[in-house]
Amino acid sequence: MAITYRTNNTASGAASTIVITKPSGTVDGDLLIAVFGSLDNSVQTLSGWTSIVVGNSGGGGTNSSTQSFYKIASSEGSDYTWTVNSSVMCAGCILRVDGQQASPIGSSEGFGNTSGGTSLSGGSGITPANGDNFFIQAWSAYFLGTGGIGDMTAQAIATSNPSWTEICDLGPNSGGNAVELSVVYGQRSQTTGTGANSATLSLSPHKHSGVFLEFKRITAFTSTITDTATVTDAITPSIGYTAIITDTVTATDSTIADKARAYSNTQKNTSTWANTQKS
């Protein structure tokens, strides 16, 4: 059974909190995955969510950060309010999928780089837990003096690269600087290592970071079916009749009896008969 992407919602800004609306159609048991592009790991873990992995650009000064979290949906509210330290620029996305294992997290890695240029390098790659799992690449970029974000494209892995679908590419700007978050997903049948991932940006960032995540699909399940039946047998006994009931289900038997009556013919003919019992 494959993991299936369903819906997502996003938000961005530069404030002490970032609020993301629950993805439409969310039901109990769905897997919710949250990814954020920000600065210096500024997004705090929300109650009920579990951190997966963080990617940091490193280097001196302000870092580009990509953070990832997950939870299994259970009586969810209408939205999620995340705290952002120092009100830094932040962009976030929550996506909803289904078909995952009870313990859904496979291999994952965070990465980052301080070099400029429009060709972005990622991590060394991961080795999948099994074939046909669900993968997410989330890339963040930190821009200085551009006044806005670029266009993130060509997200790929080095080995057996699958088709990737982008679900968001957004980010805020403040004082001429900007943060960008791009999220793509794909499925890959191979169990061999993925090799390094990469992407292309239309603008050269100051720093960039990202996470590469694997989510495990359901590979087998057991279903138990219980049938209940009731059988009622009606029996009218007669001479020489034997009834054998071999039902292994609930059986209800009923019988019908007729009262015998005595008659006599005192006139010895065939047309006159008397009920001697008067009943």
What this model shows, in words?
It is a single chain. The protein is an all-beta fold and 279 residues long. The chain has no helices and 20 strands. The protein has strands at 4-14, 17-21, 31-39, 50-56, 64-72, 79-83, 89-98, 100-113, 119-121, 133-143, 152-157, 165-170, 173-174, 177-188, 197-201, 207-217, 230-234, 250-254, 263-264, 274-275. The termini are far apart.
Q: Could you name the key traits of this structure?
A:
0% helix; mainly beta; 5-stranded antiparallel β-sheet; 6-stranded antiparallel β-sheet; 279 residues; globular
Order of helices and strands: EEEEEEEEEEEEEEEEEEEE
Count of alpha and pi helical runs? 0
Mean pLDDT score:
87
Low-confidence stretches: 251-264
Proportion in β-strands: over 45%
Query: Which percent range fits the helix content?
Result: under 10%
Q: Return the structural class.
A: mainly beta
Biggest sheet architecture? 6 strands, antiparallel
Radius of gyration: 36 Å
User: Span from first to last CA?
Assistant: 76 Å
What is the 3D shape? globular
SS elements, strand count:
20
Multimer state: single chain
